[in-house]
Specification:
The protein is α/β, with parallel strands linked by helices and about 280 residues long. The protein has a single domain (about 5-20, about 35-283), classed as Protocatechuate 3,4-Dioxygenase, subunit A (Sandwich), CATH 2.60.130. It is built from 6 helices and 14 strands. A hairpin with a 6-residue loop joins strand 9 and strand 10. Helix 1 packs across helix 4. The longest helix has 22 residues, at about 35-55. The protein is globular and about 60 Å long. The N and C termini lie far apart (about 45 Å). The chain binds 3-methylcatechol (MBD) and fe (iii) ion. The site of 3-methylcatechol has 10 residues, from helix 4.
Length: about 280
C-alpha cells in the first residue's frame, strides 16, 4: 500500500476531490450563468474539441481511449488535480487583468481552510523531527498607497522537504506546515518554516498517465502558497518560488511569474531568510 515516501494518486489527487466538495470553493449555486453565457461557452468549448478532431484526424480508437481516460479521471477523483494543474492558470490570467497589488497565481488543489491561527512572529506547525532547511520568511502587508493594513492575515500552506502536503499525502500529521498567521499592527509578519521541495504530480493516476504518455515531466517548482487577506481589501491568492530552483522555467502547472520569485539569503548554520512584501488593493 501507499507509504509516506510514495503518496499515490488515490491518496493525493483523490483527496483533493473530496476536499473541493467540502471546503467551500464550490458554493453549489453555480456561477450564476444565464442561458446565453452557457450557450456561448459550451458551444465554443465543443467547437474547439471538434476542431482538434478534424485538424488531427482523430481516429475511433483514439476517441474511445480518450473516453476511457476521462472516465478514469472522474472515477479516480482527479478532476480537481487535473484542472488546477492544466487549466487554472488561464482562469487566473483572465482574473488578473483587472487586479492591482501583489501579483496572484493559482490556488491549486491542496488548500485546506480552518487551520491553526497564530500571531506573528510564528512558526508553522511542524513535526518534532521535521527535516528541511530552516527558512525565516518575513515582510509587510500594505495597501496600494504603502500604508499598513490593519488586521492582515496570511493563510500559508506548503509541501514538506519531500514535496508532500499534509491532509493529502499519508503519514503526515494533520495541519503540518499550514497556518493562518496574523500580521502585527504595522502589517509586519515573521514566519519560521522550512524550504519546501518541488512537487510531483502523482504518477500512478490518470493525470500522471497522460503526462507520461505525452512525454512531459510531472513537476512543479518548490513553492509556498499564500492567501493574504485583510478587512476591506481584495484577498490575494498567490505562490512564492525560489531563485535557482529546479522546474522554475518548466512548471507543469504554468503558474510561475517573475514577480513571485524569492531569493533567500544564507545566514549561517544552514538557515535562510527572505523578505517579501504584499500589497492589497481596496475591495
Ligand atoms: C500543487 O502543489 C499545486 O500547487 C498545484 C497548483 C497543482 C498541483 C499541486
Ligand atoms: Fe502546491
Amino acid at each position: 500500500g501507499p507509504t509516506a515516501l510514495s503518496p499515490t494518486a488515490a491518496d493525493s489527487g483523490a483527496s483533493a476531490s473530496s476536499s473541493f466538495r467540502t471546503t467551500g470553493q464550490y458554493s453549489g449555486s453555480g456561477a450564476g450563468a444565464d442561458t446565453a453565457r452557457v450557450d456561448a461557452l459550451a458551444r465554443a468549448l465543443l467547437g474547439a474539441v471538434h476542431q482538434v478532431i478534424r485538424e488531427h484526424e482523430v481516429t475511433y480508437p483514439e476517441f474511445q481511449a480518450a473516453k476511457r481516460w476521462l472516465m478514469d479521471v472522474g472515477e479516480g477523483g482527479e478532476w480537481p488535480l487535473f484542472l488546477d494543474v492544466f487549466v487554472e492558470h488561464a482562469v487566473e490570467e483572465v482574473a488578473a487583468r483587472t487586479q492591482t497589488g501583489t501579483v496572484g497565481t493559482i490556488l491549486g488543489p491542496y488548500y485546506l481552510p480552518d487551520q491553526v491561527q497564530l500571531a506573528s512572529p510564528a512558526s508553522l506547525p511542524a513535526r518534532p523531527d521535521q527535516a528541511g532547511t530552516p527558512l525565516l520568511f518575513r515582510g509587510r502587508v500594505t495597501d496600494t498607497d504603502g500604508a499598513a493594513v490593519p488586521g492582515a492575515k496570511l493563510d500559508i500552506w506548503q509541501a514538506d522537504e519531500q514535496g508532500y502536503y499534509s491532509g493529502f499525502a499519508p503519514g503526515i500529521p494533520a495541519g503540518n506546515l499550514r497556518a493562518v498567521v496574523s500580521a502585527d499592527a504595522e502589517g509586519r509578519f515573521e514566519i519560521s518554516t522550512i524550504q519546501p521541495a518541488p512537487y510531483q504530480v502523482p504518477t500512478d493516476g490518470p493525470t500522471g498517465a497522460l503526462i507520461s504518455a505525452a512525454g512531459w515531466h510531472p513537476w512543479r517548482p518548490a513553492h509556498l502558497h499564500l492567501l493574504v487577506s485583510a478587512p476591506g481589501h481584495r484577498a490575494v491568492t498567490t505562490q512564492l518560488y525560489f531563485a535557482g530552483g529546479e522546474y522554475l522555467d518548466s512548471d507543469v502547472a504554468e503558474a510561475t511569474k517573475p514577480e513571485l520569485i524569492l531569493d533567500p539569503e544564507d545566514v549561517g548554520d544552514g538557515r535562510r531568510e527572505v523578505t517579501y512584501d504584499f500589497v492589497l488593493e481596496t475591495a
